[in-house]
Amino acid sequence: MRFSDAARPELGDPAARRGRRRAAAEARGRRADAVGGFPGWEALREAGAAIRERTLRELGTHLETLEAAVEEEGGHVHWARDAAEARRIIDSLLPDDVPAALVRSDVTDEIGLDGAEPGPHSKAAVVGAGFLVAETGTLVVAERGDGLSFPGTLVAVAGIEDVVPGWTDLEVLLQLVSRAGAGVPMRPAISTRTGDFALVLLDNGRTTVLADPDGRAALRCVHCSACSDVCPVFQRTGPRPYGPGRAGPIGAVLTPQVRGVEAPLGASLPFASTLCGACADVCPVKIDIPAMLVHLRGRVVDARRGRPVPPPEMLLMRGLAWSMGDERRYEHTLVRRARWARLLARDGRIRRLPGLFGKWTDARDLPAPPRQSFRAWWRRRR
Amino acid sequence: MTAREEILGRVRGAFPGGDGGGVTVPRGYRRRAPVPRGDVIALFGERLADRRAAVRHVALDELAVAMAAMLWAREAKRVAVPADLPRAWLPGLDGVRPLTDDPPLDPAALAEADGVVTGCALAIAETGTVVLDGGRAQGRRELTLVPRHHLCVVHADQIVHTVPEAVGRLDPYLPLSWISGPSAGRTLEILVVEDW
């Protein structure tokens, strides 16, 4: 489904919109407090962006280092091409007779896992990893860290990009993710565990994203949710219209890359933004989401070029290109269109445009064009 | 082809010119700051207060009495303690029964505890965090997860100023729990012992 269609019911619920607006405002306030007075925040962001970029560029090496370190400490590493394979592996790792507890994360949601929170009686747990330190083989859970702590089988699930090269890198990333996302100096419960767990590393489209030089920076994401808290679109629509993947601005750049720009959702998400840039301003690892959205809009348009029946906006743009390609044609078009537009106007405003253009006037009026164009006025002045 | 080979192949294939490398990490962020000890300890107290964790500063000879007062205030009658908790910490309290984790308490016994008393590996002033690594006076990790009330004793010497200082001192091979304020329905109270 297209983003705009999926958003319609959400927009029609004013109570939910008020709730989201209030929650987002609170989150922004907390974040501003946690970041504003912190000395060297920008230097920390620079370091975080570089750590994540370096991780992606050397990902193969770090993954192999991680695998060796985990197995050295008595753990096991499994690789999953997609969500179904990950679920199969996890099933085979868990004991049959006891229900497994789950510590949720974006990646456990991605592969569709379900389960109760862990407690002292849990015999097996699946946790979504926050970070994995390649050098030491350490699993870090930065949110609801309790799952690491109960005895029994432990299965960690992570995207291949969740690896960080060295232990020291945590001093940067833990601060960034806590202050930018939760708006606190440190998340309330963080746990680490080295060795003695099974690790499932998930691709599920990530290597496709990695292969696009203009899109791969989206994989720097440390799952802090700061971009959603500042996004005016997300604030109005909530997470649902973003579909089954990640929500908010980071979802708008990841989903089209992972699922392709041909299907309605992937083709519409890059346009679900005003390009206001708030997300790039707050991102702790400096992902330039607006630039990536523009890049993806280009890919959406390119993907449509080959269609036997060109979409309406492409016909429109071709027409514009033709009329603007020649001065006389341009003048003629301008005069004729302005005359038509004035016919539609009442009291200097156009309240409804015909056909497809009508969507534009659904939510706003268009001022009637003046009797005299700028070019005509300029000629007369000289 | 195995999933491993396929995924690693695709990862490497994303960079046709070999490993993308060439990124140096600018480490210009603040790793430590010249701040007097007293200010670091005061900052730790402020951050804890921001996170709604109760904090009291005491001298070593006041520790047992302060702990008694805090446990009484919480009406904590059965208190789980690690086997190697220093005896001097625990006051001879009327009505408070320490449940020593030796032999290990089973989940049912642990669930009945009203609170837990531990030490810590270190504390971070700037974030109001205590870090436990299972070392001296800390016990196993489950101890601090089940009871709804956690009283943690921190020595002033154990408080570092910044997160990088803490990461530099911690051992990655130990199971670490970073606790910053109350969470998941559990309260946190801190006793800072100023002299040792």
Describe it:
The complex is a heterodimer of chains A (382) and B (196). With 382 residues, chain A is α/β, with parallel strands linked by helices. Chain A has three domains: 128 residues, no CATH class; 167 residues, 3-Layer(aba) Sandwich (Rossmann fold), CATH 3.40.50.10420; 63 residues, no CATH class. Chain A is built from 18 helices and eleven strands. In chain A, the strands form three sheets. In chain A, strands 1-9-6-3-2 form a five-stranded parallel sheet, sandwiched between helices. A four-stranded mixed sheet of chain A has the order 7-4-5-8. In chain A, helix 2 packs across helix 7, helix 3 crosses helix 7 and helix 11 packs parallel to helix 14. The longest helix of chain A has 23 residues. The termini of chain A are far apart. In chain A, 46% of the residues are buried. The mean pLDDT of chain A is 92. Chain B is of the alpha/beta class and 196 residues long. Chain B has a single domain, classed as NagB/RpiA/CoA transferase-like (Rossmann fold), CATH 3.40.50.10420. Helix content of chain B is 27%, strand content 22%. Chain B has six helices and ten strands. In chain B, the strands form two sheets. A six-stranded parallel sheet of chain B has the order 1-10-7-4-2-3, sandwiched between helices. Chain B has a four-stranded mixed sheet with strand order 8-5-6-9. In chain B, strand 5 and strand 6 form a beta hairpin. The model of chain B has no long low-confidence stretch (mean pLDDT 90). The interface between A and B is large, with 65 and 58 residues. Strand 8 of chain A pairs antiparallel with strand 9 of chain B, so a sheet runs across the interface. Chain B: It comes from Actinoallomurus iriomotensis. Chain B: Pfam families: LUD_dom. Chain B: This is LUD domain-containing protein. Chain B: InterPro entries: FTHF_cligase-like_sf, LUD_dom, NagB/RpiA_transferase-like.
